[in-house]
Amino acid sequence: MSDTDRRDSVSDPRVGDTVDAFDAFDEALPAEPRPDPDAYFMRIALAVRSRASCTGRRVGAVIVRESRILSTGYNGTPSKMRNCADGGCHRCAHAEAYPSGEGYDVCICVHAEQNALLAAARFGVAVAGCTMYTTLQPCFGCLKELLQADVREVCYLQPWASRFADVYAGLIDRLGVPNFRRVIVDDPDARWALGRAGAPVTERGLGHEIL
Ligand SMILES: [Zn+2]
Ligand SMILES: [Zn+2]
Ligand SMILES: [Zn+2]
Question: How far apart are CA 207 and CA 90, in angstroms?
């Protein structure tokens, strides 16, 4: 492509004058610190989360091996079904109709971590030995599934507290305490994803139990 073609082809008000940007490539760019790998992958998980369609917590997850992304997932109803946000999940749409702590088994929303595992399964990608980055501490169901898929490390952004902390701790022990890590990055959309900004995320609002 000649310079003339390039100048003719780029005039998009959404991105500004890209010809000038192209010309600026010859100039030295300001030195910006590169994000470390944890921050890099967690920010990608946050971008994945933006597609979540559940009316409960919104979550994004990324499966990484040797610093390469193998799979991603966000939570919502199964594909080719009505989105949760459009009333596709009766449990999510009528949470008040279910007794506290009950009926989660009829929630048809697939969790972000599950979707990441299932996308890998769909395309035949092995996840043994991988690291998962997820924007919300995994629920009991997802954590046990990650263990059974032999995911070796789980990094999460938003924590929550469980009434069954001892049971959860047993799963963490199985994973290995050092392999269950919180990775903190800025989360400006936390209110959208988690509900009340700054409020602690509790198991009641989470996962198989929360969504
Ligand atoms: Zn839902
Ligand atoms: Zn649901
Ligand atoms: Zn889950």
Answer: 15
- C-alpha 181/C-alpha 137 separation (Å) is 9
Tens-place pLDDT, residues 147-178: 999 999 999 999 988 888 999 999 999 999 99
pLDDT at 5 over 70: no
Burial class (CB in 10 A: 0-12, 13-18, 19+), 160: buried
As annotated, the active-site residues are: 113
pTM of this structure: 0.82
Q: How far apart are CA 48 and CA 118, in angstroms?
A: 15
- C-alpha–C-alpha distance, residues 66 and 34, integer Å: 18
Distance (Å) of CA 90 to CA 30, 55, 146, 197, 205: 51, 11, 26, 26, 16
Q: Whose atoms come closest to the Cα of 143: which ligand?
A: 3
Measured CA to CA, the distance from residue 209 to residue 211 in angstroms comes to 6
**Which helix (H) or strand (E) covers residue 142, if one does?**
helix 140-148
Task: Give the ligand whose atoms come closest to the C-alpha of residue 107.
Answer: 2
